[in-house]
């Protein structure tokens, strides 16, 4: 996808697993589908 860098650690996650936490902690309640 062009976002990784060789020889550097990367972190990837399924953001949809955390939408309720994001809503509770940021007040953001609308998300765009990617």
Tell me what the structure shows.
With 34 residues, the chain is mostly helical. The chain has one domain (1-34). It contains one helix and no strands. The chain is elongated, with a radius of gyration of 13 Å. The mean pLDDT is 82. This is Peptidase S1 domain-containing protein.
Throw out a few tags for this protein.
34 residues; mainly alpha; 24% helix; Peptidase S1 domain-containing protein
Task: Give a short overview.
The chain is an all-alpha fold and 34 residues long.
Structural domain count: 1
Distance between the termini: 14 Å
Classification by helices and strands: mainly alpha
Low-confidence stretches: none
Overall pLDDT: 82
Q: Helix share of residues?
A: 10-25%
Give the helices and strands as they follow along the chain: H
Quickly count the helices: 1
Name the shape in a single word. elongated
- Strand fraction equals under 5%
Question: Assembly type of the shown chains?
Answer: single chain
Radius of gyration: 13 Å
What is the makeup of the main sheet?
Answer: none
Q: How many strand segments?
A: 0
């Amino acid at each position: 996808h062009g976002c990784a860098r060789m020889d550097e650690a990367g972190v990837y996650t399924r953001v949809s697993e955390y939408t309720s936490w994001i809503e509770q902690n940021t007040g953001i309640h609308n998300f765009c589908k990617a």
